[in-house]
Amino acid sequence: MEIYAPLAHRLGLQRMSREMEDLAFKYTEPERYREIGAWLKRRQRENRPPLERFHKTLLKHLVKAGLRNVETDTRLKGIYSVYQKVVTRKKELEDIHDVLAIRIQLETVEDCYRALGVVHAGWRPLPGKIKDYIAFPKPNGYQSIHTTVFTGDGPIVEVQIRTHQMHNQAEYGLAAHIAYKERGRNVNDPFYSWFGQFFPAPKDEKIETEVLKQHPHVPHWLRSIINLQSFVTIQTDPTMHLKSDFFQNRMFIFEKGGEVIDLPIHATAIDFAYELDTERASHLHGAKVNGKLVPLDTELKNGDIVTLETRDSSHPTEKWLLYAKTILAKQHIQQYLKSKMGTPSGERGNTKRV
Question: pTM (2 decimals)?
């Protein structure tokens, strides 16, 4: 529950993650498991007729709009997922409405947005329940559009809209990504080039940096996993590292050029710099958040736009260890400080501008 299910989630293995969560919950909280399981079955039974009517009507609307190769299915949220909603929202089971979902799979991203228009044209959406994970994927690579609508005489239903490829990746993670590439595999396909060089991850940081430069299309969420693999051997307790950094709630931070970086909550400008480019981070001089100059220990917030300023004369200091929140940033800072111990002062500051 604390390691394997969250790890599966971060790798994009949604189906495996749900199964492990429910199985673990069955043994850790057997009474709650039975209570929520019985409630879900009752909700499903009571809402089956109106849900089927909504499902059929929705499919007709999509076809009428000219959308082709449409696949739809209904799903019930997992038992542990419902339990988390009860705990986090501090509500009773009867106050949880979005436990039923319809998934729509389409050919293209354009079709997904057209389908969203069809859904909202036919049914009123709940305010604040529209989430665009296609434009802004989750840190594990998950992509989909979520909206929750009133179905009239039926239950409140969550509608998830995605392409066929997005659906496969949501269910099976990196394995699906590989399988999708395998369909039209070419020996020169860059995917296989960087994949082969990263697993197992190179321990030489220079090699890793060079690989990243050669293959800029490597997903950022996968780079984070690679960094974890590279550093976790240094830690006396790898599980502590996973819990404190890798499995924390995440936020999206924007680089001025538009690149999106996901970081754990409470991360600072220093953490952002090391996630973006470890070489530039070693010369970090200042940072602007949403156009305003801020101290390097400023905690970032979801949606912030960060601009970094670097100088040749700037280098990590011991104070940076207090400002950094991520293991990646702390390890790079520690490595720099250790490398400079005993170095003649005249030799310092000769690093090239980046």
Answer: 0.66
